[in-house]
Structures are given as structure tokens and as C-alpha cells.
């Protein structure tokens, strides 16, 4: 299956700009989840009313499967500004079980209590194991149980 990345990103940009306007969100903090969500967040920055640079979040130590990751997981840096009472736009590339998003929200709340968290996802696979739903979705995909989504060549 070949996905139209540009079309999905364009849809997200439009949805996000409309969402921020409708909800009166100004000077939001855009947070990309390492590694896949960071490049998606970079693409969305121009659609968000903000003066903040892109923030990044590494959820390695917040995952519920951390002990299965082995002794030397690859850990990236978390870079978050003060988030107390700020609107956070949390971005990832694929939403499957919802466990990555749960871990990301746990880490965000360890930094403070945001006014809101808006979830923006490039591809939603609809295979949620937790009650987590995206506010902004580039494309909803339906896969057979034996299929997976693998995005390659997009990390920067």
C-alpha cells in the first residue's frame, strides 16, 4: 500500500489551523514525540499560532514495555518549555494501541499541568487498546491483522 504523505500532511495542516482558530488557541507549544513525531511536528509548525520553537519528548522511560526494550534503549533528549496552563499540541506519526500517547501524556504532566493537550496524528490505525483518540488525523487506515505501517526515509 502506497500512502500519499503530502496529502495527509496538507490535511493535518488545514485541520490544525481550523482547530486552533475554533478553540482560540494562541501561542501553543508543539511537541513532537521522538522519533517519528518530531519530523511530522516540524511539518506542522507553520500551521500553528506560536512563538515557541518545536519541543521534543522522549518517552523511553515512560513506556509500559520499557523492560522489554533491552538494556541499552536509544534515548533522545526531551526539550520542553514551561507548560503550566499552556496549550500543548502533541504530535506523533502513527496511532495504534495508544500506549505511546499515554506515556507521552504521563511525561508531560511530570513537567506541569497544561491548559489542554491536542493530539495530532499522521496515520490512525484504529487499533486502540486504550481510550485515546486524536483530534487531528492526517489519514485513517484500515489494516489486516498481519499488516504494519513502516515509515522510512523521513527522519531528519
Question: What this model shows, in words?
Answer:
The protein has 156 residues and is α/β, with parallel strands linked by helices. It has a single domain (26-140), classed as Rossmann fold (3-Layer(aba) Sandwich). Helices cover 26% and strands 20% of the residues. The protein is built from three helices and five strands, in the order αβαββαββ. Strands 2-1-3-4-5 form a five-stranded parallel sheet. β3 (87-95), α3 (99-111) and β4 (116-124) form a beta-alpha-beta unit. 31% of the residues are buried.
What is the number of independent domains?
Answer: 1
What Rg is obtained from the alpha carbons, in whole angstroms?
15 Å
> What's the N-to-C terminus distance?
23 Å
> Looking at CATH, which topology would you report?
Rossmann fold
Which stretches are poorly predicted, pLDDT < 50 over at least 5 residues?
A: none
Beta strand count: 5
- Give the amount of beta strand, in percent: 15-25%
- Summarize the amount of helix as a percent range: 25-40%
Q: What characteristic shape results from the CA principal axes?
A: globular
Amino acid at each position: 500500500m502506497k500512502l500519499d504523505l503530502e496529502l495527509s500532511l496538507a490535511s493535518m495542516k488545514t485541520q490544525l489551523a481550523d482547530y486552533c482558530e475554533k478553540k482560540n488557541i494562541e501561542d501553543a507549544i508543539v511537541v513532537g514525540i521522538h522519533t517519528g513525531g518530531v519530523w511530522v511536528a516540524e511539518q506542522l509548525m507553520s500551521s500553528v499560532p506560536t512563538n515557541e520553537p518545536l519541543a521534543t519528548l522522549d518517552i523511553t522511560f515512560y513506556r509500559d514495555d520499557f523492560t522489554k526494550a533491552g538494556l541499552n534503549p536509544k534515548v533522545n533528549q526531551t526539550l520542553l518549555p514551561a507548560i503550566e496552563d499552556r496549550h500543548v499540541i502533541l504530535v506523533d506519526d502513527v496511532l495504534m494501541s495508544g500506549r505511546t500517547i499515554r506515556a507521552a501524556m504521563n511525561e508531560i504532566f511530570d513537567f506541569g499541568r497544561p491548559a489542554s493537550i491536542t493530539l495530532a496524528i499522521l496515520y490512525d490505525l484504529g487499533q486502540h487498546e486504550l481510550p485515546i483518540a486524536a483530534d487531528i488525523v492526517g489519514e485513517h487506515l484500515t489494516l489486516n491483522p498481519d499488516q504494519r505501517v513502516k515509515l522510512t526515509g523521513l527522519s531528519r
